[in-house]
């Protein structure tokens, strides 16, 4: 049984474990304003807002793709759909602005776009900030429109605050916790433990259950491959998996244990403060809807060769803390990826946290993602490069790539060619040659093997140029020098 609030009204419904919020709305509840376009999180037509109380008790709404959000994750949450926005006859500012700016033609994408604007409007109310082009792109980058064109939609976003502040009053309802998440000892098919002890118990009793966090990968198995899940353990309510804790490892490195269920949106401020390059990558990972729900734990456990964060974490020398029926263990991320989609996770084990080392003063991290589209696209090749520059030579060089092998993988030969050397033309020439022994990439829809090899080598050349540029007053001179070779 799922208990939640739908547009301010209590709602109770039965659903099989793999039911999505979209199916629940359209097929069980007959609430059909939310549309289905792609059923894979790409088009945004199904965007809804999900609310939960923040630490101050105020409701916080995030946008989500209903097509790949498990219906059971609504338990105890506030769901807002396009039907709920108007207050009596008065339109919500997101709707009024779309009408005034002619932001809709066929209307198929419109409910999703309105819900993304609604979430943006709520965030603006709680923390007013200038609507920069980057913020607008982030808010709307996960919504495709095939006929209106984006300018009127953008105009609507920019003019929402000129419309009367008509909001349904229930939006601010203090969260009543009568809709508690289901306890782990409740033997349902969709388990929602809230503590590490309860999670461990679930893992012990159901070692073959599927784990789910944001579901932005797992739910595609249901919508694209019609998989049925006998039993699911939802890790998103486990308090310990939602924590970000400062820590110092035995080897003396300090940093943060990032709980496996921490979403990208929650991780963003930490990365923006400490790792520019990683934060920039995050802005290009999926859409706002995906970042609101997707987690670092899910990205690592999914073990996709083209997942964005594993190469970065490999370059930074990250570690994992795993939890299972036998207790906890730690291992370097270097030992985690075994083969295509095969990891060191044992049956009944989950990732508890991922260690992100604190950047050190003389350390540099560069990350470059190559994809066909800037917004909401998976990489063809991704290079993540960490090193220190000490007395004119490179030290602790760690180069990791995505899209170049069956697993996210370090380039051991290229690393050896750079380690302890000055970052000059000859060194990088040798590193590019060595790189050809590190990978035998495959051809697929994202890029041919030839493209991948060439791009991976070009990213190393880019690294050389960036280092040289930091060492000279004249970037242009460096570029010209580079083109001459
Ligand atoms: C439209 C769209 C765009 C995307 N774009 C990108 C992109 O640009 N870059 C990118 O890297 N990815 C992208 N993804 C993939 C996805 O968003 C990420 O991989 C995300 O990090 C997965 O996290 P999640 O919490 O949603 O994982 P889930 O889907 O919940 O789980 C993924 C896998 O990990 C397992 N799992 C989850 N949590 C744990 C845990 N704690 N311990 C052990 N196993 C666990 C699950 O069983 C499942 O096998 C995209 C997905 C969509 C739908
Ligand atoms: S239907 Fe396209 S994102 Fe959900
Ligand atoms: S109005 Fe037709 S798809 Fe956007």
UniProtKB/TrEMBL annotation:
EC nos: 1.17.1.4
Give the highest taxon in the source lineage: Bacteria
> Keywords on this record?
FAD, Flavoprotein, Iron, Metal-binding, Oxidoreductase
Q: Where is the FAD-binding PCMH-type domain?
A: 183-361
Lyase as a keyword? no
This protein's record includes keyword Cytoplasm? no
A molecular function annotated in GO for this UniProt entry is: xanthine dehydrogenase activity
The record places domain 2Fe-2S ferredoxin-type at 1-85
Tell me the SMART domains matching this sequence.
CO_deh_flav_C
Q: PANTHER family recorded for this chain?
A: XANTHINE DEHYDROGENASE (PTHR45444:SF3)
NCBIfam families in the cross-refs: xanthine_xdhA (TIGR02963)
- Protein name per UniProt: Xanthine dehydrogenase small subunit
Name of the gene encoding the protein in the UniProt record: xdhA
């Amino acid at each position: 049984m799922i208990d939640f609030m739908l547009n301010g009204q209590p709602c109770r419904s039965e659903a099989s474990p793999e039911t999505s919020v979209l199916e629940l709305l359209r097929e069980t509840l007959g609430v059909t304003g939310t549309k289905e376009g792609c059923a894979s999180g790409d088009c945004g037509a199904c965007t809804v807002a999900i609310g939960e109380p923040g630490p101050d008790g105020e409701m916080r709404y995030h946008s989500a793709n209903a097509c790949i959000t498990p219906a059971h994750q609504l338990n105890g949450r506030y769901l807002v759909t396009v039907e709920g926005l108007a207050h009596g006859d008065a339109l919500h500012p997101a709707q009024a602005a779309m009408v005034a700016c002619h932001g809709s033609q066929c209307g198929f994408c419109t409910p999703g776009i309105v819900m993304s604007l609604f979430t943006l409007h709520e965030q603006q109310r709680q923390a007013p900030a200038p609507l920069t082009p980057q913020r607008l792109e982030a808010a709307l980058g996960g919504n495709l429109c095939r006929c209106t064109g984006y300018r009127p939609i953008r105009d609507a976003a920019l003019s929402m605050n000129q419309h009367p502040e008509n909001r349904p009053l229930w939006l601010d309802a203090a969260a009543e916790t009568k809709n508690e998440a289901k306890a782990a000892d409740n033997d349902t098919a969709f388990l929602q433990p809230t503590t590490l002890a309860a999670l461990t118990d679930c893992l012990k009793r159901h070692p073959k259950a599927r784990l789910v966090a944001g579901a932005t990968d797992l739910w595609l198995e249901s919508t694209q491959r019609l998989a049925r899940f006998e039993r699911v353990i939802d890790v998103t309510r486990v308090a310990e998996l939602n924590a970000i804790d400062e820590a110092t490892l035995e080897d003396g490195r300090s940093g943060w244990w990032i709980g496996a269920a921490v979403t990208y949106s929650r991780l963003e401020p930490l990365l923006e403060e400490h790792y520019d390059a990683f934060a920039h990558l995050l802005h290009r990972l999926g859409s706002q809807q995906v970042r609101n729900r997707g987690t670092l734990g899910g990205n690592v456990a999914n073990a996709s060769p083209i997942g964005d964060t594993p190469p970065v974490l490999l370059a930074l020398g990250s570690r994992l803390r795993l939890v299972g029926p036998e207790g906890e263990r730690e291992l370097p991320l270097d030992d985690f990826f075994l083969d295509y989609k095969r990891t060191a996770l044992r049956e009944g084990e989950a990732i508890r946290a991922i260690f992100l080392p604190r950047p050190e003063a003389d350390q540099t991290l560069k990350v470059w993602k190559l994809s066909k589209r800037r917004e909401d696209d998976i990489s063809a090749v991704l290079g993540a490069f960490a090193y220190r520059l000490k007395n004119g030579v490179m030290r602790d060089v760690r180069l990791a790539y995505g899209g170049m092998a069956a697993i996210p993988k370090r380039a051991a030969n290229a690393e050896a060619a750079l380690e302890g050397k000055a970052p000059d033309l000859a060194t990088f020439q040798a590193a590019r040659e060595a790189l050809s022994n590190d990978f035998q990439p495959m051809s697929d829809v994202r890029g041919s093997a030839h493209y991948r090899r060439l791009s991976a080598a070009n990213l190393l050349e880019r690294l050389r140029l960036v280092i040289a540029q930091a060492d000279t007053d004249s970037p242009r001179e460096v570029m010209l020098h580079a083109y001459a070779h």
